[in-house]
């Protein structure tokens, strides 16, 4: 919300802050359910560093989503998807070689393992293909509030795959988060007028449509001369 305020000039009403507070209350309920279910026993050896990395990752994810909203609304969704596919493959490949090379080398490959990797890749492909569409018609903040409910879906899978213990607080947390999410989406935000600057205004054609726009301008100029 802070990044959207300064970068996208989004202006919020009181109901939006109340809705976010309700969603955070739902997240707190989910954490409490994890503690009661004993899932915190799997904590790592250096919790402080882990918490710092999680906060850093969440902050960078927020920057990524706000920049994504700016690009898909002001520039070009196709250009965004192309650049994410190109540079995402390069950066993720480098991280894979540095961080997880030994883990990948120790995998005992069979058709089930390969099928799971393919299914995961398809899920991520659908996520990054449809998220720009959703962000374009809503906002990065509302999308992230909706993503808060993903932990409950992972819990349902964990009940069957990893033997997680179920608690009624999970249903309560899901309900509270959904109430906050609906409350947030019930009232649209407004956009403030940006401060005048010497920078040229951002157009909505994007780099991938720039050639077509130039061609249209040349045709119009030629017709005017005739």
TrEMBL record:
GO cellular component terms given for this protein: membrane
Keyword match Transmembrane: yes
Keyword terms: Membrane, Transmembrane, Transmembrane helix, Transport
Subcellular location: Membrane
Keyword Transmembrane helix: yes
TM region(s), chain numbering: 12-36, 48-68, 80-99, 111-131, 143-162, 168-185
InterPro entries the UniProt entry points to: SLC35_F1/F2/F6, SLC35F_Transporter
Topology in the lipid bilayer: Multi-pass membrane protein
Predominant location category: membrane
A single GO molecular function term of this UniProt record: transmembrane transporter activity
Record-linked Pfam families: SLC35F
Family: Belongs to the SLC35F solute transporter family.
Function field: Putative solute transporter.
Protein name: Solute carrier family 35 member F2-like isoform X2
Upper taxonomic lineage: Eukaryota, Metazoa, Chordata, Craniata, Vertebrata
Gene: SLC35F2
């Amino acid at each position: 919300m802070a990044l959207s305020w300064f970068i996208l000039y989004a202006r919020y009403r009181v109901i939006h802050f109340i809705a976010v507070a309700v969603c955070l209350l739902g997240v707190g309920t989910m954490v409490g359910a994890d503690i009661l279910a004993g899932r915190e026993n799997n904590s790592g050896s250096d919790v402080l560093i882990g918490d710092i990395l999680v906060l850093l990752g969440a902050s960078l994810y927020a920057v990524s989503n706000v920049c994504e909203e700016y690009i898909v609304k002001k520039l070009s969704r196709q250009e965004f998807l192309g650049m994410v596919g190109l540079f995402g493959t390069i950066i993720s490949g480098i991280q894979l070689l540095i961080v997880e090379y030994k883990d990948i080398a120790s995998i005992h490959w069979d058709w089930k393992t390969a099928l799971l990797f393919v299914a995961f890749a398809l899920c991520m492909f659908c996520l990054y293909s449809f998220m720009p569409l959703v962000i374009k018609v809503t906002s990065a903040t509302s999308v992230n509030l909706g993503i808060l409910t993903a932990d409950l879906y992972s819990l349902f899978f964990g009940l069957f795959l990893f033997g997680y213990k179920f608690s009624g607080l999970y249903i309560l947390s899901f309900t509270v988060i959904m109430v906050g999410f609906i409350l947030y989406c019930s009232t649209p935000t407004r956009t403030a007028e940006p401060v005048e600057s010497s920078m040229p205004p951002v157009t909505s054609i994007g780099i991938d449509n720039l050639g077509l726009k130039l061609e249209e301008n040349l045709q119009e100029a030629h017709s005017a001369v005739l």
